[in-house]
User: What shape does this take?
Amino acid sequence: MFRQRLAAWVLTAATAAAAFGGSAAPLSAGLLPVSVSVTPESGKFRWTYAIVLPTDSQLQSGNYFTIYDFKGFNAGSVVAPDGWTFTTDNVGPTPVLVTPTDDATVPNLSFKYAGPTIDAGQTGLGNFWAVSDFGLKTDSFFTAQTNRTSDGKVDTNITTTNVPVPSGGTVPPGVPEPTTLLLAGLGLPCVALLRRARRTPA
Assistant: This one.
């Protein structure tokens, strides 16, 4: 009986996680923005994105990610870790096979990697930030191009992230937001409960 209740709970939790994630990227793909924080700075707002390379992805020179429709962007405010270059365009750049909504009147932020290959997996790539006139958030898209660890072929992904808006948004909490973290949080309790179920006599 306990095992049946446990199985039902796990199914419900997984369904809720999928519903919460909406159009977010699969857990196994590409680069992911694991947190977004906003810090007031001289009347403006510094938006910081912490980016992670998942375990089955490889980062090669030329790989990149794009944050779409970053309103109020302050030119010259971008900071990125060593080995990355920055460009801004109103459209793209967008990897093949993904179709984010992209307002052609609002700047996108794109970061391209130019360092040695990183294939250790589940690696924090550091913080990337840009300053905006605005501190309120809304949802927008994040796309990335990497390579698969298994065969080196190009891989692309799309998920959601937070970007600034002048009005109608909410104050960013500065905590992890993609589906990846929700599912990871669900995973550990589920494993513990399953182990307990195996030890409990029928």
